[in-house]
Amino acid sequence: MGRSPCCEKAHTNKGAWTKEEDERLIAHIKAHGEGCWRSLPKAAGLLRCGKSCRLRWINYLRPDLKRGNFTEEEDGLIIKLHSLLGNKWSLIAARLPGRTDNEIKNYWNTHIRRKLLSHGVDPNTHRPTAGGVSCNMTTISFEKKEEEKSSSEDSTSWSNQQYRVPDLNLDLRISPPSQTESVKREVALFGSGFWDMRRTCLK
């Protein structure tokens, strides 16, 4: 068995809400609270369905609604929540104060979804699409430059030139080693005769 209808469709108004209907709904909720949406239309003197009253209040008339465009912070939060919760708009709206589930759903379909697709991201899986990542291949070509050939006159002049290699003096001369500091000290202490005698013994 299904749920019984909340009101008689034949005796309810449809279409856009008038300013007078909005004022009646606001005044009744301020005085009595939201209460039961099934009985609210009759108590407020409205020829509207209870569901229509609820949606009108939640989406347009309640005072804590946030007006204006979505901010970048809200965009990022919606994308993050959608990647975790999917299309559960009521749960997403519960984490964005002042925004309704219907408003977020419409904003997703008209703005964020297209924005993600334009950036190569699948709005359902939140992963890059097949053609989303473009690889820009840069090809660098190297051209080998040919060396300029010298003219025949230049080559002839170069070939006719004679080069003389300088003579290298390869004579080696062995000279006695210079006196070291220790030898100089011994000569200073014992005289040159001591060093001559020592050198004779070493021969």
From TrEMBL:
It comes from Narcissus tazetta. Residues 9-61, 62-116 form the HTH myb-type domain. It is found in: Nucleus. Residues 9-61, 62-112 form the Myb-like domain. GO terms for molecular function: transcription cis-regulatory region binding. This is MYB transcription factor. Pfam families: Myb_DNA-binding. SUPFAM superfamilies: Homeodomain-like. It comes from the Eukaryota.
